[in-house]
Amino acid sequence: MNDGSIKIDAQDHVLEIQPVSRDELNAVLDVYRQCEDFLALGPMAEASMEMVMKDIEISKKQGGIFCGIYTADGEMIGVIDYVPKNHQGNPQAAFLSLLMIAAPFRNQGIGKTVVEAVESEIRNDASINTIFSGVQINNPQAIRFWRRAGYSIISEPILHSDQTVAVDLRKDFPPDRG
Known about the structure:
By secondary structure, the chain is α+β, with helices and mostly antiparallel strands.
């Protein structure tokens, strides 16, 4: 693993994924504000700097890499947070914990492109054989997205401490991917 920076030169998008620095927190907050339709599905519908800081702190505690998704001209258009290995103490497991794409950039294949790039980066570590994620059950569009990306629902709905109800997702990699 490198420092978490990933360059994407896809057919329709030139993007960069890189860890967020302290001076980019306002840009992260702007992305969160453009995703309040998603946030409204959970316990706090309104984005705040406190929410951003809490998410970044949780990421650090879990061994995650909290990244901005940037266009070729440096505009942050989304965030992705992932734990590249040792998810819940399993050295062979990774976790995609957050993906948000700002409203004006949705339905353009960016989320799919970003997830594929992060999965590819994670898979550079040959010991990783599974990526987990989760999705709120009141977000059918996200459930379809993750299923199309190859993730399977592996749990019944779970009530979390923040009062959201979600299902766990899993995607396995073949052992002979060399």
